[in-house]
Amino acid sequence: MSKKQVTFADIAAYTHFSKTTISRYFNHPDSLTLENQEKISQALDTLGYKKNKLAKVLANGKSEFIGIIVPNLYLHYYSEMLAQFLSSYRDYHYKFLVFASEHGAEEEQQYIEELLSYQIEGLIVLSHTLSSKELAEYHVPIVTIEREDEYVCSVNTDNYMGGVQAATVLAKSGCDILIHANSDFPSTIPAYGRIQGFQDFCETNGLEHRIMIRNFGASFEENNAEIAKLLQEIEEIYPEKKAGIFMPNDTHANILLNLIIRKYSTLPERYKIVGFDNSPVSREAAFPITTVGQQMDKIAQEAVELLSLQISERKKRRPKPLVAPIHKVLAADVFGAVMGGGIDSDTVGQSYGDMANQLDYICPMIYPSHYGDGNFGIEHPDTQPYDTILAALQLSREDLSGYETEGQDQASVR
């Protein structure tokens, strides 16, 4: 036989408090003394009280639901961002309702109306379909990520410096032509900064370069076909040149890498590839891909924190609306750096020491399984991971010491 559900009346009778006091404990605990809070808390344990979330939603209209709209889950960046949001539950206790908006403004508006019918407390938007002005008219706390954000709060990566970092990596690897392939973004989209940063660095340093604007499509088949055309065009225009190619994201960088490997059975010396995002595919690729990393865990944390700030303000008796949207910008990092020079460094496409003098942070690749027997004087590095990592970090210190220049800052290693 199931136990009788414990009610406020039961708790009030047990504690000799009024039902109003019990209600205040759940909705405004700070209005009670610590002593009375403790008495009620002990009573809940004794009586075996279980929260009725649905009743709470019906009573106060607060669902603890957050809506998320992403363009798709095909690109590894969006699936990784979603995973980061879901992991924030342990800190913020929000539940997430997710829609993938792939078919235009009307569909996305329907999704938002559906989310509002569930009394969501806030909305996180990664799609580019509706303008920020249209989103602001829903009068619900909103945070956008990597999209136009004039009228709403946002969290973005420093895309401009990301473009500069990508160009730096390719320039230092001795490429004859630096190429950046991307979509046709308006300047109001943060990702446009990658194009501008890449181009500015090349022009400032007198480097031959080319921006190749493409419509990559929204599926693997479309992406693969367009990137195959991109590769063919590069080979026709620059048949004898060492090409450094900065792709718009890690998914597209991995597709390009696989197309080259299928054609040549390896990654030829004449190609250097850099991705963007630091999504898992950059580490799982046939050749680990150097990538300009977005700090996706921090982006998710900042977005939920910014959303929570707006939600908390709206719950006050006299809420103060934001005077202007809050925009946060996080630094971009280069991931996939290789220490020690040699074949690996040439293949992946960067000089570890030179990069350290150009960047704020550098993250060396330390995969014990990638080191052959005898590396670092260790018989089998793969079976001695801690010794291998320690030896690699010692090599990092030695490498960077040879590039120190008086009066010049050097990247932090992390």
Oligomer: single chain
Mean pLDDT: 85
Assign the structural class, choosing from mainly alpha, mainly beta, alpha/beta, alpha+beta, or little secondary structure.
Answer: alpha/beta
Strand order of the largest sheet: 7-6-8-9-10-12-13-14
Q: Helicity range of the residues?
A: 40-55%
Radius of gyration in whole Å, from Cα?
Answer: 26 Å
Annotation, overall tally of beta strands: 14
Give me the number of helical elements. Answer: 17
Outline, from the CA principal axes?
A: globular
Main sheet record: 8 strands, mixed
User: What are the segments in which pLDDT stays under 50 over at least 5 consecutive residues?
Assistant: 341-349
Range of strand content? 15-25%
Give the end-to-end Cα distance, rounded to a whole number of Å: 57 Å
Briefly characterize the structure:
The protein contains 17 helices and 14 strands.
Describe it.
Strands 7-6-8-9-10-12-13-14 form an 8-stranded mixed sheet, with helices on both faces. The chain has a 6-stranded parallel sheet with strand order 2-1-3-4-5-11, with helices on both faces. It is globular. The chain has 414 residues and is an alpha/beta fold. Mean pLDDT is 85; it is low at 341-349. It contains 17 helices and 14 strands.
Any key phrases for this structure?
414 residues, 14 strands, 16% strand, 8-stranded mixed β-sheet, globular, alpha/beta, 6-stranded parallel β-sheet
What is the topological layout?
Blueprint: H1 8-15, H2 19-27, H3 34-47, H4 53-60, E1 65-70, H5 76-86, H6 89-92, E2 95-100, H7 105-117, E3 122-125, H8 132-136, E4 142-145, E5 153-157, H9 159-172, E6 177-182, H10 192-204, E7 209-213, H11 220-237, E8 243-246, H12 250-264, E9 271-277, H13 280-284, E10 290-293, H14 296-314, E11 327-330, E12 333-337, H15 342-348, H16 352-356, E13 361-364, H17 385-401, E14 412-413
Parallel strand pairs: 1-2, 1-3, 3-4, 4-5, 5-11, 6-7, 6-8, 8-9, 9-10, 12-13, 13-14
Antiparallel strand pairs: 10-12
Helix pairs in contact: 1-2, 1-3, 5-14, 9-10, 11-12
